[in-house]
Amino acid sequence: ISKGPGNTKMAKSTAVPPGPPVYLDLVYIPNHSNSKNVDVEFFKRVRSSYYVVSGNDSAAEEPSRAVLDSLLEGKAQWESNMQVTLIPTHDSEVMREWYQETHEKQQDLNIMVLASSSTVVMQDESFPACKIEL
């Protein structure tokens, strides 16, 4: 929030200011997909073939349902219906519920959620992984 003349408060700006879209191949959604930093304007402006969605803390509401819904709303405003792949880094209840509740809209918008089918084992830990070819 910035202050104008006479100490009046001006409207809070969005995380991504309005402007022309930027096209990228791969985007990591910042801050564990927190809705304080990513909104509809982000997805209207930052257009990518792949979005990586991080976050596995249900207490902190990560990933944020609002961010996932913002992807749908923002993508609906794109002029083209290019394929978008959403890559979650963790399996979470929020992601599973969102996927099931919005699956039809995802299909209409040409959004695919990529499930990991591989496991990487490194020293004493193992974790799901996926390979992306650009």
TrEMBL record:
GO biological process entries: axonogenesis; dendrite development; microtubule cytoskeleton organization; regulation of microtubule depolymerization
Alphabetized GO MF terms: actin binding; microtubule binding
Superkingdom of origin: Eukaryota
GO cellular component, one term: dendrite
PANTHER family named in the record: MICROTUBULE-ASSOCIATED PROTEIN (PTHR13843), MICROTUBULE-ASSOCIATED PROTEIN 1B (PTHR13843:SF5)
Name used for this protein in its record: MAP1B protein
